[in-house]
Structure formats: structure tokens, C-alpha cells
Amino acid sequence: MSHPELLSGFVQNAALLLIVALIFDLRTRSPVQATTPQRSLGLGLLIGGAGVFTMLFPVRLEPGMILDARGLLLAISGVFFGTVPTVVAMVITAAYRVFGVGGPSVAVGVSFIIGSGLLGLGFRAFRHESLTALHWFEFVALGFAVAMLQILLARYLLPSTDTLIWGLAPTLLIVSMASMLALGLLLTDRSRRAATLLALAEREASFRALTERLPAIVYRAALDANSTTLYVSPAIVSLGYKPEEWLDRTDLFVHSLHPDDRERVLAQLEDDRRNGRATDLVYRFRHRNGSWRTIHDRAEVVRDPQGHPLYLQGVMMDVTDQQRAAAANALQAAALDAAVDAIAISDREGNYTWVNQAFTALTQYRAHEALGRNPRELLKTGHQSPEFYAELWGTLLAGRVWTGILVNRRKDGSEYT
Prior knowledge:
The chain has helices at about 5-30, 35-55, 70-80, 85-100, 105-125, 135-155, 160-210, 245-250, 250-255, 260-275, 320-340, 355-365, 365-370, 375-380, 385-395; strands at about 60, 65, 215-220, 230, 280-285, 290-305, 310-320, 345, 350-355, 410, 415. It is of the alpha+beta class and about 425 residues long. The strands form 4 sheets. The chain has a 5-stranded antiparallel beta sheet, sandwiched between helices. Strands 1-2 form a two-stranded antiparallel ribbon. It has a two-stranded antiparallel ribbon with strand order 8-9. Helix 1 (about 5-30) packs antiparallel against helix 2 (about 35-55), helix 1 (about 5-30) packs parallel to helix 7 (about 160-210) and helix 3 runs parallel beside helix 7. The longest helix is centred in the middle third of the chain and has 50 residues, at about 160-210. The mean pLDDT is about 80.
């Protein structure tokens, strides 16, 4: 066989290996799965089958002596797939080399299979912690090592091929290094994808573990007109719905908005998305039982590293009870403020925290002048003894009602009782 024919044969065999590797990559491109003995065994069978397939189309140097790309495949398997798949593939390809091909160079072929796999496994052990960050020249070096292994095995186990094999060495080295580089870059990209999928799966698991323990409703929504929900936490039951029901009804959010709030809410959502602002909304929302709940909704658009919008992520909090309590407190404060009697509220140290208008009229101190200050410095006249004040505060701090007569001082110095 002439050198051009040998080169063509080598290139065709390497191209066949790359095609097999591409098919294999597509076949195994799936969400991250846990490594199990069964999965490792199945992977080894696939790699072994691919090795046998490349051996079906060898470059024949002389009767019984063949060259093919199985060594490259087994070395790259050792690097990226580990011990079990590689050993299984070595057993399969070695068995085929002995019983399917045979010939006087069986010892060379089997030794090459074992040596190539061990080269890959050794490389993996050396770079185990950084398989997603391998450099191109490392694959070139591994391809060189595989080719030199084949050349040296043929040189010492088949001396009759010495002249032939050394003549082919430059071609074999170039094709081996180029093929290993292509395979290595392909599978490095695959490893990076797998690492990314794993990181995303871990982040998603952490996200769900956190959100599903929160009392607030956490959600993700599509950036469409209906804000179609992509995920909602179990806290949605507080509005009467199961998560799966909420997800099935894509228009539920829009139709459950109060008619008087719907246009305002949808317009602000659209405006915030368009301008890249976080959303902060309060609106009325219909509970499944027909009652209206007040919702405080805060959300923002999540973007990818390139800045492209992905989805809306936010938190919905039912603030109905808080609003009712706030309204009741405001009503009570208004009633106290309108009372004709002077009323003041203080903390445990006696410092004023609230006074009404009648207090201001009686003492001549405006609210901002009294708040945070103590009656001892504002109103005390000295007519009452320390024992008097001790008894007064002891009664109040014990939670009982104190009644008595006080002589206090106004801002202008005049006294009142």
C-alpha cells in the first residue's frame, strides 16, 4: 500500500471515529443523571461497540496487521468516562481483536488496546479535578503518546515491520494528534455542558427547597401578556389553589385580578418589563372562595449572563389582615387624637411615643417637641415626692390602672392640675 493510500486510510478511519463520537455525544446528551454501576456498564458497552465499529474499517499494512482508531477512542474514554466504562470497552475490543480479527499481530493489537486505555486512565488520574479546563496541547500530547505506543509495540513485538512502521510514523503521529485534539475538544465541551446542567440542577433544588418552606407565594412567570406561570410554590394554597391547578390555567392570574385593578396592574407590569425595572404592586385578587384578598406583589425580570430577559420572578404576600389592622389602628389613633382630654403614650422608660392634640393644647408642647422626651424634664414641678412617682410607675409597670392628682408645668412655666 502506497503512502498516499495509507494517509487516506488513516484520515478516513479517524473521520469515522469522529462521526461515531458525534453520534455518541448526541445519544448521551441528556439532563444530568447520577452515575450508577448500571449506567457505567451501559456506557462501557456503547464505547466498546464504537471501538469494534472502527475496527471494521481498518488500514491493513500486511496480512494480520491493521491500524485503526480504537486506541484513540479508548484513551479518550479513560480521560472522560473513567475506569468502569473504559475497562468494559477494553474487554470488548480486545475480544474482537482476538476472535474477530486474529492474525500474527494479535499480541500487538491487544497490548495496544490495554495500553491506550491505561494512558487515558492515567491522564484522568492526573487531571481529575479539572476535566472541564483541559488545554488543546494536552490532547495533542495524548494523541502523540497513543501513536508512539502503537509504533513502539509494533517495533518491538513485530520486528519484521520495523522499516514499514517507522516510515509511517510521521503520518500516524499527525493523524493521531489531530484526531485526539478534535475528540478532546468535543468531549470537553460535553463535560462543560454536563457541569453547567449539574450546577443548574443544584441551584433549582436549592431554590425549591427554600421557596417551598416560605409562607409567601414565590413564583416564576413568562414574559407574555398573561404572565403565564412557570412555577409557583405550595403557599398558593392560601388563595385556594393547588400548584398544579394554578399552572394548568394560564389565564388565571389575569382573570382573578379585581376589575378595577386589572388594567393598572397589567400596564405597570408591561412598563416595568420594558424599562427593566423591578415591579412593586398592591392589588386586589379573588380567592377561590370568591372573597377578595389584598396582595403585595414584588418581582423583577431575571436575565441571562448576556443580559437577555428570561422570566419574571417574584413574591406575592397576602396583606389583607395587615391592612385591616392598619386601618383599625388608624381609626383608633384618629379617635384618640380627636379626644378632648390630653392623652399621651410612653415607653417603659417613660419617654413619650405619641401625644394627641389635646395634650399639645394643655402643655403648650408641640408633638415633635414632646416625642422621645420624658415628663420628668418637661412637666415635673417638684410638688410630688420621689415616693409618689415610685408608686405611680410601679402601678403602671405592673399593668394596673393608676389614678391620682398631678401638678405639672406648662412650657411657659405656668402650672396646671
